[in-house]
Amino acid sequence: MKIQQIKILQLNWGQLSPIWHPLVIEIETDQKIVGYGEAGVAYSAGVSAVAHLIQELGQRIIGKNPLLINQIWQDFYEHTFWAKGGGTLFYSAISAIDIALWDIKGKTANMPIYQLLGGKITSHIHSYASHIEYG
To answer: For the Mandelate racemase/muconate lactonizing enzyme N-terminal domain, which residue ranges apply (predicted)?
Structure first.
């Protein structure tokens, strides 16, 4: 299996559009398995920079096996100058790709990602809702 293409989707959420800019990616394999990931910079400036970073990093992984997640991450870290320096925008781009690759791996194994990462450790979680002022 090989990564065939990466699509970047900048979502528009109506009344929240002036402040909230969700960025989702779609990685498709040659076997038509699709994985989704989200970049963690949805507020204010920076979304277009992350989209461009995803586009550049995505070119590095076209044709690679999407199940080799650690190798792909290590390639980003060792062979891109800014990965070693860190930073919100760069790691947000890497994170979106990483999440999409785990989604592909979970779909390939017919398992939810939490099982691939070690399994369930509790039967309930506390939730937190922010921006309640938006209804």
So the answer is: 24-118
